[in-house]
Amino acid sequence: MNNFIFSYPTKVYFGKGCVREYLACLLKKQGPTVLLAYGGGSIKANGIYNEVSAILAETGKTVVEFSGIMPNPTYAKVQEGARLCRENRVDFILAVGGGSVIDCCKVVSAQAMTEEDIWEMEFSKRTYPTSFIPMGCIVTASGTGSEMNNGAVITHEEKKLKAGVLGAYNTFAMLDPEYTLSVPFAQVMSGAFDTLSHAMETYFGKPHDRGNLSDDLSEAVMRSVIANMRQLLKEPDSYEARSELMWASAMAENGILKLGKITDFQCHQMEHQLGAYTNCNHGQGLAVLHPVLYRHIYREGAARFKSFAVKVWGIDPAGKTDEETARLGVEALAEFIQACGLPTRFSEMGIPADTDYRAIADSCNLTAGCCKKLTREELYQIFLECR
Ligand code: NZQ
Ligand code: ZN
Asked: Which of 51, 173, 262, 293 would disulfide-bridge 369, Cβ 3.0–4.6 Å?
């Protein structure tokens, strides 16, 4: 195994009623002024806003609202949140939403503590923030796993880049699967596919010629996500399936599956740049890209793709070459995506035909963990095949 250091800064409260049971107690430990951050208003429609506001009032907090955090949060929105924190001397940030709200708040929590431009600091100077306004989150849509890591994915509109920025860890993360029952079904499947993608992107990272404990755990996470997505197709409101997916989401991105691995995440790099140019839905972009990308690389990673086929999709390798078994695994993934009603082409996502795929391909990072050494020209071909 590769060397690693591991610790767990986020305390997770999981299950039905956890916000009602624990939030007041957790807030009492924080300062008097709380930034209540949320998205476009779903929390007002489903009652979560009222529930959380009542707890904030009961604990005597001064509440500063930071609303309208958009899917694919922008760097300009981060600056707005940081200004609010400074002007109101915010002591604690409470993010209530999906990955977009949590990501935006992680970077707000760092940007509010420094006059330096966080983007320039991280990408030009390669220095990283060390002081943060403490934050916690209440997850309302699962999939990204943002609640248990310190990465945030932010779109810098002027630079046309969507990239990972390091921010704060949540001191606590509250995961009540009932809160996800109002998420539109297409978003539920998109989020769940994002989780599957995180596990795959880790599993296909290096080393991919031999397995380790992290790979075994990844296989378990992938099988569980697939089974629970299938269950939701039969029973969309299943609490059990949604709770399994909610925990799988956190598990796939809390670092455990990545121990001892150099992760791949080539598909994510491509989807993020697609998002920078088109503002597309993250999980849906991944669903279109994954099978096409994998058809380009499975031969180079045949041993690992064979394991994926056999252990995740139950394909019988008897009488087949490794390469044939590997290819069948990729096709099983493609069929699953279609069966889940996820898009299989960019056109189904409303991405215009005249999108500048050359510019997108040219601005993608090429990752060290991918089993094939790709070129930007090949990325461009992959984007074209996805149209
Ligand atoms: O804005 P609101 O009104 O909250 O509506 C949201 C949004 O329209 C809605 N929603 C959330 N909870 C709901 C709900 N609607 C009804 N009922 C509820 N309970 O769902 C829509 C999508 O929300 P969003 O937060 O954008 O989705 P998701 O959680 O998939 O987050 C996507 C963002 O996370 C980034 C993505 O790139 C994208 O920007 N990622 C973050 C990662 C991380 N920090 O570790 C890793 C991922 O790979 C990913 O890149
Ligand atoms: Zn993702």
From this structure: 262
d(CA 350, CA 361) in angstroms, rounded, equals 19
CB 187 within 8 A of CB 41: no
Domain holding 82, by residue range, is: 11-178
283 Cα to the center of ligand 2, angstroms:
7
How do residues 146-194 score in pLDDT, each as one tens digit?
Answer: 999 999 999 999 999 999 999 999 999 999 999 999 999 999 999 999 9
φ, ψ of residue 153 in degrees (nearest 5): -105, 115
Tally of domains in the chain: 2
Locate the ligand 1 atom nearest the alpha carbon of residue 101 and give its number.
25
- The CA-to-CA distance between both ends of the chain, in Å, stands at 39
Ligand 1 contact via 72 beta carbon (within 6 Å): yes
Tens-digit pLDDT profile for residues 289-338: 999 999 999 999 999 999 999 999 999 999 999 999 999 999 999 999 99
Tokens of 81: 């949140």
Q: Beta 161-166 vs 151-156: how paired, if at all?
A: antiparallel
Nearest-ligand number for the alpha carbon of 153: 1
Residue 216 to residues 180, 209, 210, 259, 297: CA-CA distances in angstroms? 28, 14, 11, 12, 22
Are 55 and 48 spatial neighbours (Cβ–Cβ below 8 Å)? no
Domain containing residue 242: CATH number: 1.20.1090.10
Q: How many angstroms is it from 103 CA to the middle of ligand 1?
A: 9
Token pair 């898009």 is found at 343
* Residue among 147, 170, 282 whose CB has most ligand 1 atoms within 8 A, to mutate: 282
Looking at the structure, tell me whether residues 125 and 204 fall in a common domain: no
Is residue 325 one of the residues assigned to a domain?
yes
DSSP label of 312: I
Residue carrying the six token digits 């597309």: 280
Candidate of 52, 156, 187 to mutate for ligand 1, largest count of ligand atoms within 8 Å of Cβ? 187
